[in-house]
Design a protein that fits this description.
By secondary structure, the chain is an alpha/beta fold. Helix content is about 40%, strand content about 10%. It folds into three domains: about 60 residues, no CATH class; about 260 residues, Aspartate Aminotransferase, domain 2 (3-Layer(aba) Sandwich), CATH 3.40.640.10; about 90 residues, Aspartate Aminotransferase, domain 1 (Alpha-Beta Complex), CATH 3.90.1150.10. Helix 1 runs parallel beside helix 4, helix 5 runs antiparallel to helix 12 and helix 7 packs across helix 9. Bound molecules: pyridoxal-5'-phosphate (PLP). Pyridoxal-5'-phosphate (PLP) binds next to helix 7.
Length: about 450
């Protein structure tokens, strides 16, 4: 074993992290070819010839840092990937040192208390029903699985079927309704939940990707209805109020995939775009997207705490559980990181108004993108309502060529997608660091790519 003192290593890592953060605004958003070629250094280290801990940290910084995607630069607009706020980064460094497991309060009184406080703040800041319970997990995919399984179990229990005892084979029929524009993670979720695609009704969406309320099928029994806050391409949301108010709440469970779009409900100026979202039974969202918490952090919120606990509950002879909040019984994982620590730090220091202002700043930046690009003659495929900007540059080949040229420029990073059969450039403003100057420089890079 090596004798490198813990503190030296920690200082080296923190200093490297500080240098990295300091260089964020000057470095290209995506790595150079040389930086990428350097990555082979990691696989050249063999377990039969280990290096010192100090050398490992040095290699991570020297070779790893320049090859990263600069997600915190304010100019990364790919995949709805958020940045990390300074307080969240600092809190996660401290939390890393704590190395707490929050499966049970007895394992970490501190992190459990922080988790409970952060969960309450999330429900509050998202303007969801006060009786709801929130729990942190690895991302919106896991949060979708958690909420949908809770809904499935609850509906079947109401129909007299105990899934835990009997499984799904032979269970009463459950209508499952999704939009044709549901995110791929919902498709996977349903598969994991034992709901095959043949038993799912897919409802058509309108030209902005919103489920068409007028195309809902007749609901004849227990039904699981899955809606979306924030289409991954357009940012538009399903018409929650129209749909949910038309359903019989006694026999339906509405789950909302709001991986990023649910955060619009935290902002008075944007709330109309998710009107009625609070009428659902469960919600999935992410901390690592639009709240700018570090990876990985998803959140499931459920209006029916007992139903969630029933679905996710687990107990063992060596585990004493009382009425306290047991995270291993509020989600899929047993051992788990204290993901709520950076979330608490953001919410505690930004407050309701600060979070709303940051989200609104992203929306304003997205609108600025939309205005500047359309003024230059670029086609907007949907009005900008929150943080997503979807544009096309004529035919598919030209659009793909422009996207590739922008990515090569490394001034900013934008992704490609296919929406309603057309290739499109998707600009997702999900990093609170994005300024009007970042938008203007990125618009200039996009227009330059169009000219080439
Ligand atoms: C609408 C929507 N749902 C679910 C997800 C999956 O989220 P995660 O990657 O955090 O699991 C995403 C990711 O982009 C998304 O945009």
């Amino acid at each position: 074993m090596t004798s490198t003192p813990k503190l030296d290593l920690l200082h080296a890592a923190v200093e490297a992290a500080a240098r990295y953060i300091e260089s964020d605004h000057h470095a290209p958003v995506s790595p150079t070819a040389d930086a990428l070629a350097g990555l082979q250094a990691f696989s050249q280290v063999s377990v039969d010839a280990p290096i010192t801990p100090a050398a490992a940290i040095e290699l991570l910084d020297r070779v790893g840092s320049p090859a990263t995607i600069r997600q915190n630069s304010g100019r990364y607009f790919g995949f709805v990937n958020g940045g990390v706020t300074p307080v969240a980064l600092a809190a996660s460094v401290l939390s890393g040192a704590w190395d707490q497991n929050v499966a049970l309060p007895v394992m970490s009184p501190a992190a459990s208390a922080i988790d409970a406080a952060a969960a309450e703040m999330i429900v509050d800041v998202l303007n969801l029903p006060a009786e709801s319970i929130a729990s942190f997990c690895g991302g919106a995919t896991i949060a979708n699985i958690t909420g949908i399984v809770a809904g499935r179990d609850n509906l079947l229990a109401q129909a007299g079927w105990d899934v835990h005892a009997k499984g799904l084979a032979g269970s009463p029929p459950l209508q499952v309704i999704v939009s044709e524009e549901a995110h791929v993670s919902v498709t996977k979720t349903l598969r994991v939940a034992g709901i095959g695609s043949d038993s799912v009704t897919v409802v058509p969406a309108d030209s902005y990707g919103r489920m068409r309320a007028d195309a809902l099928p007749e609901i004849t029994g227990p039904a699981l209805v899955i809606l979306q806050a924030g289409n991954v391409n357009t940012g538009h949301s399903d018409p929650f109020r129209d749909i949910i108010e038309s359903l019989d709440s006694a026999t339906t469970w509405v789950h909302v995939d709001g991986a990023f779009g649910l955060w619009a409900n935290a902002v008075p100026e944007r709330r109309q775009h998710v009107d009625g979202v609070e009428l659902a039974d469960s919600w999935a969202t992410d901390g690592h997207k639009w709240l700018n918490a570090p990876y990985d952090c998803g959140v499931v919120v459920c209006r029916h705490p007992k139903a969630l606990q029933h679905s996710m509950g687990m107990s063992a002879a060596y585990v004493e559980t009382g009425d306290e909040r047991n995270l291993m019984s509020l989600g899929l994982q047993m051992s788990q990181a204290a993901r709520a620590v950076p979330v608490w730090a953001i919410l505690a220091s930004e407050g309701r108004a600060g979070v709303a202002a940051s989200i609104e700043q992203s929306c304003n930046a997205a609108e600025r993108f939309g205005e500047k690009l359309s003024e230059a003659g670029v086609e907007l495929l949907a009005p900008v309502v929150i943080n997503q900007v979807l544009v096309a540059f004529g035919d598919d080949a030209t659009t793909d060529a422009v996207i590739a040229a922008v990515q090569d420029s490394a001034v900013c990073w934008v992704g490609g997608t296919t929406f309603k059969g057309r290739r499109a450039m998707r600009i997702s403003v999900s990093d609170f660091a994005t300024t009007a100057d970042d938008v203007d420089a990125s618009v200039a890079a996009i227009l330059e790519a169009v000219r080439v």
